[in-house]
Amino acid sequence: MDAGRKDIDALIDLMAKLPGLGPRSARRAVLHLIKKRERLMSPLADAMKSVAENARECVKCGNIGTGTICDICASEKRATGEICIVEDVADLWAMERAAVFRGRYHVLGGTLSALDAIGPEELRIPLLISRVRDEGVTEIILALNATIDGQTTAHYIADELAGACTVTSLAQGVPIGGELDYLDDGTITAALNARKGF
Amino acid sequence: MDAGRKDIDALIDLMAKLPGLGPRSARRAVLHLIKKRERLMSPLADAMKSVAENARECVKCGNIGTGTICDICASEKRATGEICIVEDVADLWAMERAAVFRGRYHVLGGTLSALDAIGPEELRIPLLISRVRDEGVTEIILALNATIDGQTTAHYIADELAGACTVTSLAQGVPIGGELDYLDDGTITAALNARKGF
Q1: Which residues form the Toprim domain (chains A, B) (predicted)?
Q2: What is the pLDDT of residue B4?
Q3: Best residue in A51, A89, A96 to probe B by mutation, most B CBs within 10 Å?
C-alpha cells in the first residue's frame, strides 16, 4: 500500500530536476497531472517515452531529430551554401520560429570558456571547419549570443575560417519595439556605430 | 523524418499545460530532458506512466494513493476519532510534512462557491457527514484556507455537524518567524483577538 506514495514522491523528485521547477512547483505539477491522469499524464508519459527513445543529435549539425541526419540537413529545400552558427538547439528553434533563414545550421553545443576549460574540441568547431571545406559553403552567419563568451567564440570561428568563406554575424542594434529609454548603453552604442542611411 | 520534430512539438505542447510552465519554459524543460534522456527523461516517463496507471482517489477520504483505500485511512497507527478537513490533497501533504497530526483526513476537493455553482454535493461533504456518523468521530479539525470561500465552507460544515461532534479549526495568528511589519491587517487583528496569557 505504501508503494503508492513512494511512486508519487519519486515522480515529484524527478520533476523537481526540470529547469524552472523546484520542489514546491513540482508537487503542484504532479497533483495537476494526477487530477488529469487520463487526459494529460498518460499522453505526456507516452510522448516523453517516445522522444527519449527516438531523439538523437544530427551527426552533421548537432540539431535534435529522430534520424542520424536531422530534418533540416536532410531537406532539399534548404540552401547548402549558407550555414548559421548557433550555440544551442534552443537558438536554432528561435531562428526557425522567425522563419527567415533558409540555409542550414551548425549547433556548437556551447561557447568557448577558459574558466570551464571548454576548448574548440569540446564544441563542434572541428566538425564545422570540415563542413565548410566539404560542403561548398560560401557564407557562415554567426548567430551567437551577445555575451562575452559568445563573442569570444564568434571571433575564434571567424579567425579559423578567414579566407575559406564569407563570415557575417547578426546585426546588433535597437530591437523591434524597443524603447531607447529601456536599452542598455552597449546596445545604444552598437546601434549608433552601425547607423545607416534613412 | 519529419515525425521527429512533431513528436518533440507534441511533448512541448503537453509540458506547457503543466501549472507554472508556459511555452517558453516548456521548450527549455524539453531540451533539458532531451540532453539528459537516459538519466532523467526515461525514468521520468516511466514514473509518470506508473503513477498515471496506479494513482486513484481514496473512496473514504479523497487522498491520493494506489489502492481503493489510501495509506492513511488503512493505517492502524492513525487515530480514528479525529478528522482533519482540507480543501485539497496539496493541503493534506502540507499537514503531513508538519508531521504533527496523527488522526485521519477528509479532502473536500474544493470549497463551496456560489459564483462557480459548487454546492455541498459537488464536494465530499455528504461523505464527511456519513463518516462522522459511522466512524465514531469525536473531533473535526477544520484546516481550510483562510480565504472567503474557505471560511464560508468551514462555517457550512460546522453548522451541519453541530451537535454530532466537536468542531475546531486551526488557530489564526502571527506565523512563526513572521514580522509584524510585513503582516496584513487581518492577521494582526486575528492575532490580537486570539491573544493568550504569556
Answers
A1: 81-175
A2: 64
A3: A51
* Nearest to A97, CA basis, from A139, A143, A132, A28: A143
Using the Cβ of B19 and the Cβ atoms of chain A, whether some distance falls under 8 Å is answered with: yes
Q: How many domains does chain B have?
A: 2
Our CA-based measurement puts residue B4 at a distance from the nearest CA of chain A, in whole angstroms, of: 5
CATH code of the domain in which B158 resides:
3.40.1360.10
Least confident interval from A15-19, A80-84, B188-192: B188-192
Instruction: Pick B29's closest partner by Cβ from A1, A18, A31.
Output: A18
- Helix %, strand %, coil % for chain A, to 5? 50, 10, 40
Q: Is B145 exposed, middle or buried (0-12, 13-18, 19+ CB in 10 A)?
A: middle
Residue A173 confidence (pLDDT) above 60: yes
Q: Residues B46, B94: one domain?
A: no
Q: Is A40 on the interface with B (CB under 8 A)?
A: yes
Query: What angle separates helix A23-35 from helix A3-15, to the nearest 10 degrees?
Result: 120
* Set of cell numbers at residue A2: 505504501
The verdict on B35 and B72 lying in the same domain is: no
Q: Among partner residues A10, A30, A43, which is closest to B14 by beta-carbon distance? A: A43
The Cα–Cα gap between A196 and B95 comes to 64
| A3 → chain B, closest CA residue | B66
Question: If DSSP codes are grouped into helix, strand and coil, which group holds residue B134?
Answer: helix
Kindly state the cell numbers that stand for B144. Answer: 481550510
- Which residue ranges in chain B fall short of pLDDT 50? 1-2
* Residue of B51, B53, B105 best to disrupt the A interface, most CBs of A under 10 A: B51
**Domain for residue B44, yes or no?**
yes
CB contact under 8 A, A33 and B18: yes
CA B62 to chain CA centroid, Å, is 10
Question: CB distance B19–A2 less than 8 Å?
Answer: no
Domain with B121, as residue range(s), is 64-169
Q: Tens digits of per-residue pLDDT, A129-142?
A: 999 989 889 999 99
